[in-house]
Amino acid sequence: MEIAVYPNPVLRTKAKPIEYIDNEICRIAGEMLDTLYDACGVGLAAPQVGLSIRLVVLDITGEKTGERVFINPHIIEERGEIMEEEGCLSFPDVRGKIIRSQYVKVTAYNLKGEQLEIETEGLLSRAWQHEIDHLNGCLFIDKMTPASTIANKPKLKELELSYQNNKAGVS
Ligand code: ZN
Fold first, then answer.
1. What is the pLDDT of residues 9-20, one digit of tens each?
2. How close is the Cα of 20 to the center of ligand 1, in Å?
3. pLDDT attached to residue 65
4. Which pTM value belongs to this model?
5. Active site (annotated) includes residue 77
6. Candidate list 63, 77, 78, 131, residue with the active-site label
């Protein structure tokens, strides 16, 4: 799968809930995991591969075990605040500081249709908030500190220009 890069409009589209977990969803989830490992990322949301559905893959350890596919996730509890630097596979070479909740509790379904409740802190909590934002068309550049926003301006301009050129067939 190809990763959608900013400013591809699919990244700004609110994703639709998944109503049935069928073979197609399982296939998409598998391909998204492959794409995640190829890109050496920790998380990937379906809009990042051009699909406007509420599906996220996450593997913070990269160990390829445990629950890694999450359907219709949402945050039901959050607390604390912590500022850390983060990046995004849809924004090559962009990194910025963002304040996020220190702890979040998430509910989601796995591929078997079982409901999960996940409590997370630290890096995993940050990844969860980042990926769920993607499902709502919210991007990490929207939440960066003013200093990081200024620092990344030239890089974002560059990405915008290259997207326009690709669309126009110029390389
Ligand atoms: Zn991202």
1. 999 999 999 999
2. 25
3. 85
4. 0.94
5. no
6. 131
